[in-house]
């Protein structure tokens, strides 16, 4: 490839492109501009999905990767906005991207579309894919991102490949870019053609091809500077292109540009009730690689899985390893075909494989997959461009959480006596009836607490009481924030709580900040009762997990003990949830990821640990 690039340069064909012909602003990114201007969280995420170029492979200065330069360029216009880039590299190009941005990925353990600006870059990894296939994946991915959240802004990026350089040399627009630009036009999406910006400089003789990239794809530091210049110009144009709206406007998707496009890509977790297991499968086992939180393991032949679905494509997502088990699979009763472990596998790797495509998306289908040789099989899930039945369809929230909990080991927890001494009015309302206004204050873990729907369990236990639950949360935020600038007014007092519940993992170990919030609330509403919770969930490196003990360690200062002391001194109720929560997880024989949806937060099972512990704590 290097010889091809050098040879093309040597032909010396003139290049007539202008300085601004390598990008299109189209509809711009007005929603992102709104979020950046009105940043109240200090944690605005730009999510990039792509390949080795995005990762900065081969760069001596990692800050030259174009994702970092895009963040830098936006920061110039919005210096007060906190920005984080999340870079998601993957095999499979735009095809796998369609599944990776799906609406639910419990086992895969990522939150890809968590920001407001999606930058999609697949040109390098789509090189070996027929354009007629790539265009369906790209369009499906664009639609998938928007379906995930209608206020997402989107940008398409094309980086240089040897094939593209050859096309530009011959005066042609690369077919891949031509088709991608049709998609960008159809959806009004900005596009940044870094390939064209770089090719112009190479073909003009300003930089040698081998100086731009040693392998024709990943730029050197010199090549990355060319990309950086283009990124800066592009972002300036984007920011200037549209007024900043007062509020984000949902994007309305037009019909697909290509009739064959299917935008129902999703990762169906292996533990979904619609996945039927037979044989010696073991769920909830630790994965040797990320981002899986857990995998389904079978040793040797004879274990099988089946899944009924509607859709155009079905595949698998697993951990392949040397010496692992081969599979056999059949779709719709066809003869079984073999899927072997890759011959070049030298260690555990993520494998995403299509098993059948071009299926009638309106018809019913069934996949049967079985282990077919010695060795370990480690399944993560199924790649489905389509739909499956909802095992919880028709259930109300209480029935749904009961169904989730019924599949779990029961929680056995005996709360301490005397725990209600400081919340007598709450206890009276639970017993005798009336409205109980309960405000949950904290971070996204308190959001998980609210998501457990524990108040429904309490109202079932105490049918005379109506609990009005208000989740007053802010991502990654604890009482160090809430105690300042009279924020208790907006976050607590305006909700007129009878019971204030404070918890989460974002208090920074500062129990005195919690005390300050309690005192401020009671200064204006003295009759407010308070329940303090110690942390649950979070990252494995967090102190409450790293140094966990079943009972609170009273031999040295720590947050759990400090919270207990604040509760006693401020006459608050106190629930050391950390102890029984982690004890339960350890007792199940499952890896902690079995109860988590990402690196920090609870999934539906994890939420039920929280909810059922609170139910037990409140039980009289």
Proportion of beta-strand residues: 15-25%
How many separate helices? Answer: 22
Q: Look at the helices and sheets and give the structural class.
A: alpha/beta
Instruction: State the total count of DSSP E strands.
Output: 21
Classified in CATH, the superfamily of the largest domain is: SGNH hydrolase
Q: How many discrete domains?
A: 3
| Cα end-to-end separation | 74 Å
Show unreliable segments. Answer: 1-19
Major β-sheet annotation: 10 strands, antiparallel
Q: If classified by CATH, what would the architecture of the largest domain be?
A: 3-Layer(aba) Sandwich
In helices, the fraction of residues equals: 25-40%
Mean pLDDT over all positions: 92
So what's the CATH class of the largest domain?
A: Alpha Beta
Radius of gyration: 27 Å
CATH-defined topology of the largest domain: Rossmann fold
Tell me the overall shape.
globular
């Amino acid at each position: 490839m290097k010889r091809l690039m050098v040879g093309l340069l040597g032909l010396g064909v003139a290049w007539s492109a202008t300085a601004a012909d390598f990008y299109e602003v189209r509809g711009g990114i007005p929603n992102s501009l709104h979020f950046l201007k009105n940043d109240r969280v200090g944690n605005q995420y730009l999510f990039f999905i792509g390949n080795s170029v995005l990762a900065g492979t081969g760069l001596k200065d990692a800050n030259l990767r174009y994702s970092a330069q895009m963040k830098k360029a936006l920061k110039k216009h919005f210096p007060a906005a906190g920005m984080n880039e999340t870079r998601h590299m993957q095999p499979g190009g735009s095809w796998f991207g369609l599944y990776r941005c799906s609406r639910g990925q419990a086992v895969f353990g990522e939150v890809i579309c968590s920001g407001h600006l999606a930058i999609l870059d697949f040109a390098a990894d789509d090189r070996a894919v027929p354009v007629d296939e790539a265009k369906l994946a790209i369009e499906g991915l664009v639609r998938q991102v928007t379906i995930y959240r209608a206020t997402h802004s989107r940008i398409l990026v094309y980086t240089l490949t040897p094939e593209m350089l050859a096309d530009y040399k011959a005066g042609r627009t690369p077919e891949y870019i031509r088709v991608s630009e049709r998609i960008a036009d159809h959806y009004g999406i900005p596009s940044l053609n870094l390939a064209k910006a770089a090719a112009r400089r190479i073909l003009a003789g300003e930089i040698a091809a081998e100086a731009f990239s040693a392998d024709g794809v990943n730029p050197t530091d010199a090549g990355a500077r060319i990309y950086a210049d283009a990124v800066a110009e592009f972002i300036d144009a984007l920011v200037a292109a549209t007024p900043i709206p007062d509020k984000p406007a949902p994007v309305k998707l037009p019909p697909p540009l290509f009739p064959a496009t299917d935008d129902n890509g999703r990762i169906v977790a292996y533990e979904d009730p619609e996945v039927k297991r037979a044989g010696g499968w073991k769920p909830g086992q630790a994965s040797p690689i990320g981002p899986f939180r857990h995998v389904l393991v079978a040793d040797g032949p004879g274990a099988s899985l089946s899944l009924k679905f509607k859709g155009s494509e079905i595949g698998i997502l697993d951990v392949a390893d040397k010496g692992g088990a081969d599979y056999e699979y059949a779709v719709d009763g066809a003869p079984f075909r073999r899927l072997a472990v890759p011959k070049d596998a030298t260690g555990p790797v993520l494998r995403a494989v299509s098993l059948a495509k071009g299926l009638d998306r309106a018809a019913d289908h069934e996949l049967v997959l079985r282990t077919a040789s010695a060795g370990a099989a480690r399944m993560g899930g199924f790649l489905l461009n389509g739909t499956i039945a909802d095992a919880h369809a028709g259930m109300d929230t209480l029935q749904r959480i009961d169904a989730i909990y019924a599949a779990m080991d029961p929680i056995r927890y005996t709360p301490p006596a005397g725990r209600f001494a400081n919340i007598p009015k709450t206890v009276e309302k639970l017993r005798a009836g009336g409205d109980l206004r309960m405000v949950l204050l904290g971070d996204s873990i308190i959001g998980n607490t609210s998501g457990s729907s524990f108040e429904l369990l309490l109202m079932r236990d105490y049918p005379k009481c109506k609990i009005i639950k208000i989740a007053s949360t802010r991502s990654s935020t604890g009482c160090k924030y809430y105690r300042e600038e009279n924020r208790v007014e907006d976050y607590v007092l305006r909700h007129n709580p009878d019971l204030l519940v404070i918890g989460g993992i974002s208090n920074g170990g500062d129990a005195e900040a919690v005390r300050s919030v309690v005192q401020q609330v009671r200064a204006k509403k003295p009759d407010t009762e308070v329940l303090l919770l110690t942390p649950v969930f979070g990252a494995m490196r967090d102190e409450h997990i790293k140094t966990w003990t079943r009972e609170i360690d009273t031999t040295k200062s720590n947050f759990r003990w400090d919270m207990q002391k604040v509760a006693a001194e401020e006459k608050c109720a106190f629930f050391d949830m950390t102890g029984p929560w982690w004890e339960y997880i350890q007792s199940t024989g499952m890896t902690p990821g079995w109860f988590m949806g990402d690196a920090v937060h609870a999934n539906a099972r994890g939420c039920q640990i929280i909810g059922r512990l609170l139910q037990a704590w409140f039980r009289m």
